Amino acid sequence: CASASLQTSVEVLMKSNKRAILIFLPFQVLIIAHVTAGMVNLTRHEKEKYFLTATGEKELFPSLHDPHSRELSVVIPAYNEELRMPVMLDEATEYLERRQKQHPPFTYEIIVVDDGSKDKTTEVALRYSRKYGADKVRVLTLVKNRGKGGAVRMGTLSSRGKVILMADADGATKFSDVEKVEAGLNNLNPKPENMAISCGSRAHLEQDSVAQRSVFRTFLMYGFHFLVWFLCVRGIKDTQCGFKLFTREAALKTFSSLHVERWAFDVELLYIAQCFKIPIAEVAVNWTEIEGSKLVPFWSWLQMGRDLIFIRLRYFTRAWKLQSPHKTD
Ligand SMILES: Nc1nc2c(ncn2[C@@H]2O[C@H](COP(=O)(O)OP(=O)(O)O)[C@@H](O)[C@H]2O)c(=O)[nH]1
Ligand SMILES: [Mg+2]
């Protein structure tokens, strides 16, 4: 009889413990999100301050704080892209050279950001630098892998463009669609402060992709869309497209406050933009699924889901705050 009553009391205790854990779980998550919040990381390694000229000399990258001196900067984050990137770079340089020939005042630069690749990404990009000159193609080799957001930010901070395009190294978006995102940016009439962002979008392709993907991936996709909408960004259907155009001013304002350096950085960037009331356009672009994605379906989605929850909680607890742009080394 004594052992039976002991057993019942243990069961009652366990039940109430479980209930307590469930009740306190949101607080625990909130505390973890707050305590583990990192700062904006704008510092760069000494080696990351320079690019190589065509003759092999080291030259200092300029700063996003400087006035613009090119019409367009193209920032390409690249992690182990020795195979996919040449196709993209050929398409981009061909388009940009043609545009410059037709309209000489148009000036451009491409900045390939090798995010600590283990393959020959830097060597491949340097071939283009030698072919077109380091005024047009520059390579920023990061000492350590930061993640796509960290790489895009480092490239953007080193760019000279009046407008800055981030474009994936796999060439999934047709490069000439830059004209579409430019039109989207101009339609926002960014004057006088020149704040605007134009996002390439694959939302018009969603029905096709649902038809091609497994039920599980479709479920993950809708789950992610819901979390983005619920927690961070409303009014933009495709936050993740790797083809986005910023005015120089909008890039400085948003990237100066960016904390997330992994896949969910686009969401935080747009969240920051909406907090600053920067106008955002969403423009349909041509997009082809290119083999060799680095996104590991389940784990990357899980990581992104956690990042979205943490973004919201960290701004909520003011562990993260919007920053005003300041110069760093
Ligand atoms: N900097 C950086 N870029 C990455 C990393 N993983 C992927 N990328 C780049 O992000 C872009 C998109 O990657 P991709 O694998 O095509 O992803 P998906 O198109 O979303 O499936 C490409 O330019 C990649 O090189 C990473 O860890 N760091
Ligand atoms: Mg891709």
From TrEMBL:
<dbReference type="GO" id="GO:0005789">
    <property type="term" value="C:endoplasmic reticulum membrane"/>
</dbReference>
<dbReference type="InterPro" id="IPR029044">
    <property type="entry name" value="Nucleotide-diphossugar_trans"/>
</dbReference>
<keyword id="KW-0328">Glycosyltransferase</keyword>
<dbReference type="InterPro" id="IPR001173">
    <property type="entry name" value="Glyco_trans_2-like"/>
</dbReference>
<feature type="transmembrane region" description="Helical">
    <location>
        <begin position="20"/>
        <end position="42"/>
    </location>
</feature>
<keyword id="KW-1133">Transmembrane helix</keyword>
<keyword id="KW-0472">Membrane</keyword>
<comment type="pathway">
    <text>Protein modification; protein glycosylation.</text>
</comment>
<dbReference type="InterPro" id="IPR035518">
    <property type="entry name" value="DPG_synthase"/>
</dbReference>
<keyword id="KW-0735">Signal-anchor</keyword>
<keyword id="KW-0812">Transmembrane</keyword>
<keyword id="KW-0808">Transferase</keyword>
<dbReference type="GO" id="GO:0004581">
    <property type="term" value="F:dolichyl-phosphate beta-glucosyltransferase activity"/>
</dbReference>
<dbReference type="Pfam" id="PF00535">
    <property type="entry name" value="Glycos_transf_2"/>
</dbReference>
<keyword id="KW-0256">Endoplasmic reticulum</keyword>
<comment type="similarity">
    <text>Belongs to the glycosyltransferase 2 family.</text>
</comment>
<dbReference type="GO" id="GO:0006487">
    <property type="term" value="P:protein N-linked glycosylation"/>
</dbReference>
<protein>
    <recommendedName>
        <fullName>Dolichyl-phosphate beta-glucosyltransferase</fullName>
        <ecNumber>2.4.1.117</ecNumber>
    </recommendedName>
</protein>
<feature type="domain" description="Glycosyltransferase 2-like">
    <location>
        <begin position="73"/>
        <end position="251"/>
    </location>
</feature>
